[in-house]
Amino acid sequence: MRQKISTKQLTIGMFIELPLSWSDHPFLKSSFKIKNREQIEKIKNCKLTHILVDVDRSDVPIPALLSEEDTRIADPKDQPVPENWNPQTLAPSELLEALNDSSMASDMKAKAVYQHSRTMMERLFESPSSDNIVTSKKVIASITDLLLADDETSSNLLRITSHDFYTYTHSVNVGITSILLSKALFKNSDAHDLHELGAGFFLHDLGKIMVDPNVINKPGKLTDAEMAHVRIHPFQGYKILKQANALSDECRYIVMQHHEFHDGTGYPKRLKGKEIHRYARICCIADVFDALTSERSYKKAMKPFDALKLMQQQMSEHFDKKLFAEFVLLFK
């Protein structure tokens, strides 16, 4: 099946067909799978506005065609690629080195793990192939082990979280705080697979790759139609993980239910109370907290204390009260 998309939507892993003669483009073939950002830039230099993608031969989900109005807006993915970008490497070597270096000072380790985890998640959102998803889960398992074993590095990580609201930064922030809350709750139990929990927390918003970035980054209140569009991301995340053969029960609960509220006012299924899995209730608290403490174009970031106070005084019905009380203790 072939699907038309804007050239602004091209990502690594798509199998594309160029509507040009062989002599009018710089490639050996007119149809091929995109392997790196350099190929994307060459395609854009062909002055094409739209292109056909072979859905069945692509490694990544194919988004719906952006409207003509949307394509006029600059896409952050069109920014210049960093010089040290390696499309074949998901996890930066610096991240792997920091995770394995037992002699590194905890403050330096925290900075390295945080910075390069963000890079890994940015690359994953750029190229969410099955191989990259599986690789990310392996690296997240190592990050989880670090958080479980090293209290000092964990404390430093909790203090240095960034307050921008890029989806990849948000994923790391929610991943770290959710793992630390799970550590406090389950540290004396062998009944929980904390590696899969960590994966679910870090990948909870993976479905946002199927959401129009102009809606995600809109500087203001969303329309009802835009909100409905954003609310597809839990199920889209579920589908992406399932297609990658990376969907554990833990990931399924977290990805599908992290926007469900304790009082039944959340989405996508308006679940209530214990209908929401405890793992998703953990992620929900961390998700809201990070949204409040992150700076957006239309609001300033709240300080952690003020965010926790607002959550307690104005949003308490959204959360499992016992889990929220444990979450507050992380910041004392």
Automatic annotation (TrEMBL):
<dbReference type="InterPro" id="IPR021812">
    <property type="entry name" value="DUF3391"/>
</dbReference>
<dbReference type="Pfam" id="PF11871">
    <property type="entry name" value="DUF3391"/>
</dbReference>
<dbReference type="InterPro" id="IPR003607">
    <property type="entry name" value="HD/PDEase_dom"/>
</dbReference>
<dbReference type="GO" id="GO:0008081">
    <property type="term" value="F:phosphoric diester hydrolase activity"/>
</dbReference>
<dbReference type="InterPro" id="IPR037522">
    <property type="entry name" value="HD_GYP_dom"/>
</dbReference>
<protein>
    <recommendedName>
        <fullName>HD-GYP domain-containing protein</fullName>
    </recommendedName>
</protein>
<dbReference type="Pfam" id="PF13487">
    <property type="entry name" value="HD_5"/>
</dbReference>
<feature type="domain" description="HD-GYP">
    <location>
        <begin position="146"/>
        <end position="332"/>
    </location>
</feature>
